[in-house]
Amino acid sequence: MKHEMIAMVLAGGQGTRLGVLTKNIAKPAVPFGGKYRIIDFALSNCANSGVKNVGVVTQYQPLELNEHIGKGGPWGLNSRNGGATILQPYSSSDGEKWFKGTANAIYQNISYIDSLNPDNVLILSGDHIYKMDYSEMYNFHVENNASLTVGVIPVDMSEASRFGIMNTDHSNRIIEFEEKPAEPKSNLASMGIYIFDWPTLRRYLVKDSAKDRVLEDFGHDVIPTYLDNAENCFAYSFEGYWKDVGTIESLWEANMEYLNPNHPLNETRNTWRVYTSNQVTGAQFLTEDAEISNALVVDGSYIAGKVTDSIISQDVTVSGGSTVSNSVIMSDAVIGENCEIEYAIIGEGAVIADGAKVVGTREEIAVVGFYDKVGGPKNDGEK
After folding, report:
1. Residues annotated within a binding site for alpha-D-glucose 1-phosphate
2. Glucose-1-phosphate adenylyltransferase/Bifunctional protein GlmU-like C-terminal hexapeptide domain: which residues (predicted)?
């Protein structure tokens, strides 16, 4: 069966800037918003956009991510004519193993893509927070007879030097690409979202490999090659909410923004749902001493303390006398009695012993890793 477009989600990133939160799991598997994981947004966008065949390319610490995705059932990707497929590095006859970059990851999975025989391949990052209709970008790609369409988002000119910048003409054709330029000529930042004409991309990847060279990365290698060869390259401008949660501060900020009921990502809206795979748990329990203000509290949580401006994930305990403010508490974490948590991210399964404090600032968020312990007989004091 020939497909108009399939998706390849690049989900193997280590996410070193997230520190202890990615010590044992890949960045796309990091929890977000109380009940989601970061990759849920890319997968839900695919499902809502009608992209039913999705390859998920994993590499770093993939076990939890693999278990979360399964066969794609929660996203409706386990249909007869679709599916989610986990694609991990393997040793091949030509000696390839670990993916050397984004483009190399696609090259090493040519056989999977060929098996679906697509006209176009949608390349996505598995570690961005946003809602986007890929079918609109696809229509733009087809209308322009493009070999490559790059999703871009306008950013403030003062921030443009942090991104790969696409310079375009009046028709949105890309005429120049600048990687983190000191003096950017435009503010159209690459979102790391690409639609490639598959036969064209396949030809470049195979030809380059045959010459004992490797097009390793889309931004550094493939886009400049396309421009040098006068391929039809266009920029598709997206003006919705999009966030790269690559740092502790940006992850915390995105979670805090999510508390706004009018936020574009708010899951209570039915027009574009975000789906996920969640374990079955009990109802939340709020004691008579619980105080909650401007907080998101997920099922299975036990709250006996005070929670303000925070996200309390599934099966979290906040014991009596404790205060949690401006913080993200991930699933299964336990906050003991008389604790103080402020401007912090508490990882899954972490334990904050009675009387302990985890206090950061708006500029420097305090972090406790997954299943770590703060306070108690063996670790007294503040973090």
Report:
1. 164, 179-180, 190
2. 289-358
